[in-house]
Amino acid sequence: MNDTALVTAPDDWADAFFDPGFEETFRALGKYDSTEADLDALCAKDFMTPGTRVLDVPCGFGRHTGPLTARGLHVTGIDASPHQIARARALHPGADFHQADMRNPPPGEFDVILNLWTSFGYLDTPEDDLAALTAWAGVLKPGGHLVMELTTRERAEHENRHGTEPISTKTVTYNGVTESAWYDWEAKHAHVTYTRPGWSATCRTRMYSRPELEDALHQAGFAVVSFAGDFTGGPVRPENRTVVTAITRSTP
């Protein structure tokens, strides 16, 4: 392997990544194709009914916040990116958006917190990630739910690791976008560079295994942690696109 080919995302990668080119690039990759089906499955849950107080963190350009608001839920979306918040407000003028770090959510109490689309593990350290989880637990009502949708380390290894190599790489091109990824299994980081004509950016995500995530959630104050393979409660399999985690905080 030629290590010089490995592009490392800087600590402040998110500031540049979520710019105007991000949405167009991910739309070309089909990343948003399942949005309506995902929302239908979410809203079929008995704790996601009209009037439910929901915090969507991070909300991006409002892909979930806007439609959920239109379905009658009381949703607040927060995101650290000023561009994403501006875009969300333009697309969904009737929804509630605020620029904020995920470790500093608005005061609750919320019935539900959504953390969707592998939007966890962005922060600099595991301690920062734990601080975010702890802050979310603090603004949920007793018995409230946190729903996380993310690619776990198990899926990343299933798709990209071919033995015991410390670093794995992958490059694919689809619809004019090249995705070049490398996975540092010891550091637990995935670095992915997306490139299309006129735009290129690199992101970094900390990979959590299901046991590691469960432990962090318990440390943050959540009492019950369960895993499913999709929003409908399907079985967990290593090849699943995502793993959905539903967590209930204990009643004081």
Automatic annotation (TrEMBL):
Assigned keywords, A-Z: Methyltransferase, Transferase
InterPro entries: Methyltransf_25, SAM-dependent_MTases_sf
Entry-linked SUPFAM superfamilies: S-adenosyl-L-methionine-dependent methyltransferases
The keyword Amino-acid biosynthesis is annotated on this UniProt entry: no
Domain called Methyltransferase: residue spans: 54-144
GO molecular function, one term: methyltransferase activity
Gene Ontology process terms (BP): antibiotic biosynthetic process; methylation
Domain of life: Bacteria
One Pfam family hit: Methyltransf_25
Protein name: Class I SAM-dependent methyltransferase
Organism of origin: Streptomyces tateyamensis
